[in-house]
Amino acid sequence: MYRKGIFFDSMIISYRAILTYIKRLYDASCAYEMKDYTQCLQRLLVDAPRTLYEVMELCVIFLNMEEIGALRARSLGRIDQIYYPYYENDLKNGTYSLEEIKEMLRYHDYAENKYTGIGKTQEKIRVPEKKEIDEAKLVLNKKGIKVLE
């Protein structure tokens, strides 16, 4: 039981440190005309991300925080599956246009590569059309691979 207490205490300390870091970013962003970024940080201080922009900014914050020296401590996981519901929802609700999302993905690719040192930022990132995604899902389903929605 003692070890579990230490683990949970360390989680609380880590969570507070993350919130402190986001608060510092928020305070610094208020000095500049960065309305979207400032609102994003304000939201992340109190709730989970709702948009693709917010989830990508949270990822960049994670990359900043998880660096240990020159080594990566974690992978970003299956960002295609993590980001897709936000991407689809933002397009459906008109939160962002396809062009705006492409620009966010370019920035995100740059930010991730800056921290990982893997590859070079692509000049153009092609975002697949819904039809292509649906066709890919059909192929995967036929092969018995379950696709997360």
Low-pLDDT runs: 115-125
What order do the helices and strands follow? HHHHHH
Q: Helical percent range?
A: 55-70%
Major beta sheet summary = none
Please give the count of helices: 6
In total, how many beta strands? 0
Radius of gyration: 18 Å
Approximately how much beta-strand content do the residues carry? under 5%
Average pLDDT number: 78
Structural class: mainly alpha
Termini gap? 38 Å
Shape: globular
Describe what you observe in this structure:
The chain is 67% helix and 0% strand. It has helices at 2-29, 35-44, 52-66, 79-93, 98-116, 130-142. Helix 1 (2-29) runs antiparallel to helix 2, helix 2 crosses helix 3 (52-66) and helix 3 packs parallel to helix 5. The longest helix has 28 residues, at 2-29. It is globular. The N and C termini lie far apart (38 Å).
Give a brief rundown of this model.
This protein is an all-alpha fold and 149 residues long.
List the main descriptive attributes of the protein structure presented here.
single chain, mainly alpha, 149 residues, 6 helices
Topology:
Blueprint: H1 2-29, H2 35-44, H3 52-66, H4 79-93, H5 98-116, H6 130-142
